[in-house]
Amino acid sequence: MRWRRPRAGAAGSAGAAGAARAAAGRGAAAVRRLGRAPDLPLVAAAALCAAGLLQAVAEIDERNRADIPLTLALALGSTAPLAFARTHLLPAATAVTAAVLLTPLSDRLPCVAALPALAALLYLTGLRGSPRTTLLFAAPFVAYAVGPAASAAGGKPLGVALLAGAAAALAAGAARRAGGEAAARSAADWEYAHTVLEHAARGERARIARELHDVVAHHISTLSVQAETARLTTPGLPPLGAERLLAIGDTARQALTEMRRLLGVLRDDASSGPPTRRPQPGLDQLLTLVDEARDTAGGGVRLVVRGRIAPLEPGLELTAYRIVQEALTNARRHAPGAPVDVELHYAEGALRVTVRDIGPVTGPMSPGPAPGGGHGLLGMRERVAMAGGTLRTGHGPAGGFVVAAELPLRAAAAA
């Protein structure tokens, strides 16, 4: 393909169009700066007032010399109030409107300087006033156009022209006001939607943090306890095997520490991915959880069920399951080898979940408590609060640690 040089005429046209757009932009910016000038109404009123007085004086002759005071008064009344456009808009617009409409009734035409003053004040009235105020200022022009316009100076054409100009100025101001209100409403709607989305994202991050802690921390803690128990209780274990089991336990504890740091970030700032779609566990899986804890902890774990068993709302079952799971994980971490009792009490209008242990078991072959703390108790409190229940944690009367939660059935069902 052979390269062709653009024609000089096309390049010149493009350059001229760009220069015209730049000049238009500079002109619009200058107009906006002029409109924001604090002394603009006063300067404009002075200029229009001077022009109106000069026109009135120039039109005086021998026939209307006796009407000089009225002519000057009408010229001043139709231009000077523009100076108060920013401080007393409605009185100024009322005065100019009255002066302009009274001038033809006194057998003379309005001065030319009165028209831009009237247009400016009516535009500001439509911009700042209410729709009712806009209609009230349009009513005199409608009455003048259909009423005495035929017998006044200028006749019907002047009345129709004043009505058209006033309606255009009022409509332009009202349209700009409506556009500004629509933009403000749109901005408020977007801000509200952003706030709702942000709150939803925070809630989802907190939920994912709870699920991640309840599931992953449970299995990592189980792995650590199993490695420590196997290292200390397996007879005739070779030194290399004991060293590898110790490394497995250390790695599991390091992974648990890193996961807790990640959860701290996830609860505060980090974004979250889509939730999983597998079924949530319930009380039907509680016996499996207890058997698993009994097999891995090296101590007795007992499940006690009291009251009349009744089907519960899935969210309430998930809350109870997670409380038991986290309490068993804490028991394995801080009191390894200690017997643990898990009790479910189906009371009247409430489900009471209690997990208690007798404290750490001491001895030469018992693994020590795992160091550090996590988000377990915080996650349990959040879950119980969402179900409308209460949670009590602390040392038991005979030693050990107790986790006791009461979940109201009605509150859970209504959630």
TrEMBL record:
GO terms for molecular function: kinase activity. Pfam families: HATPase_c, HisKA_3. Residues 317-410 form the Histidine kinase/HSP90-like ATPase domain. Keywords: ATP-binding, Kinase, Nucleotide-binding, Phosphoprotein, Transferase, Two-component regulatory system. InterPro entries: HATPase_C_sf, HATPase_dom, Sensor_HK_TwoCompSys, Sig_transdc_His_kin_sub3_dim/P. Its EC number is 2.7.13.3. Residues 204-269 form the Signal transduction histidine kinase subgroup 3 dimerisation and phosphoacceptor domain. It catalyses: ATP + protein L-histidine = ADP + protein N-phospho-L-histidine. This is histidine kinase.
